[in-house]
Amino acid sequence: MPDIRDIEIIAPHFKRRLSGVTSTIIQLVPRQVAAGEKIATLGPGLPSDIPHMRYRQLAGLWLLPSSGRQRIWHARRNIEMLAGILLRDVLRMPLRLLFTSASQRRHTRYSRWLISKMDHVVATSARTAAYLEVPCTVVMHGIDTARFHPPADRERPRLRIGCAGRIRHQKGTDLFIDALIALLPHHPDWEGEAIGRVTNEHDGFAEDLRRRIAAAGLADRLRLAEETTDVPRWYRTLDLYVAPSRTEGFGLTPLEAMASAVPVVAGDVGAYPEIIETGETGTVVPTGDLQAYIAAIEPYLADPALARRHGENALDHVRNRFDIRNEVDGLAAVYGILASSGT
Question: What is the C-alpha separation between 96 and 158, in angstroms, rounded?
Fold first, then answer.
């Protein structure tokens, strides 16, 4: 547990459930520490090897860090913004509040009020920035290319197409399953897998997908599977990745796949159009359009060499433009401005 006097940046994480925010913090914070940032997380659901402060240490926030710089509260959810406002404005703790927004929809009145209280706002894409009513800095997410990397070889009985995310309508799992039900009978060298957690309210949705798979006679080649604890290794088993979400904030999974030298077919949501180069690293299709997904996936199934070429392009693209070092550097610049203000 780090000494509160040495912590200059707090990254709260107030939900146990795995999410895009969780993935961001798990990948980003260790790299920020390695870059010299004095940062710690606060809250549940994160690995024990990430610097972590305890709730009882919040009392120490009335004092500035030993460096004398302004301490930064870096929120990524409404509840974390609210906590920062209470600490700064009610308890009068000397904090600078930063919010990273990945949302691509008009914010609620409550969210707009919270955002208006921030000292600075970061948007994860140009599209996200367009939904904000306050000045912001665009810092796109990056990927840890040491953690996500290609396999030594891809030799296995069948080629594999994958989809990751909670099993539900919003994530478009049905689009993935229905596209492969249409395509796999014509491409016997391929198999598909969708991994993700099924919450109680979506049990019926998942069961209906399993029935469709069984009715198509594809139970041995197409399946729903539980979340894996080794996501990087799972990407290395793939030859093609599909991101069929109907709504998305930023969406890290295409970057994770591309860093593993896997091309991506994705909907026109989140930052996907800013990440994927259609015809080079994958394809972006109209959101929710099943026939468009079928048309975009089929060329890869018919020509695995195309998948390999686009996968290599994707790997180069991510390493050049979306390495997590770019995000670390972008946030460091914002931190520097905030930490030196008000002193």
Answer: 52
- 300 and 163 in a common domain: yes
Q: 3-state DSSP call for residue 101?
A: strand
Three-state DSSP at 127 gives helix
Convert the pLDDT of each residue in 39-97 to its tens digit: 999 999 888 889 999 999 999 999 999 998 999 999 999 999 999 999 999 999 999 99
Name the one residue in this structure whose structure tokens are 């599209």.
127
Residues of the domain holding 32? 4-142+323-340
Q: Same structural domain for residues 174 and 314?
A: yes
Instruction: Give DSSP secondary structure letters for 234-281.
Output: HHTT-SEEEE--SS-SS--HHHHHHHTT--EEEES-TTHHHH--BTTT
Kindly give the interhelix angle for 290-302 and 304-321, rounded to the nearest 10 degrees. Answer: 110
Global pTM reads 0.81
**pLDDT interval class at 15 (50, 70, 90):** confident
CATH number for position 121: 3.40.50.2000
Q: What is the 3-state secondary structure (H, E, C) of 53-89?
A: CCHHHHHHHHCCCCCCCCEEEEECCHHHHHHHHHHHH
Could you tell me if residue 147 is inside a domain? no
Let me know whether 202 and 256 are in one domain. yes
Task: Annotate 198-210 with b (16+ C-beta within 10 A) or e (fewer).
Answer: beeebeeebeebe
Nearest-10 crossing angle of helices 203-215, 173-183: 0
CA distance 108 to 165: 25
| H and E: helices and strands count for the chain | 12, 12
Residues 228 and 88 in one domain: no
Contact 211, 180 (CB under 8 A): no
Q: CB-side exposure of 178: number of CA atoms within 13 Å?
A: 14
Q: What six digits make up the tokens of 228?
A: 């894996």
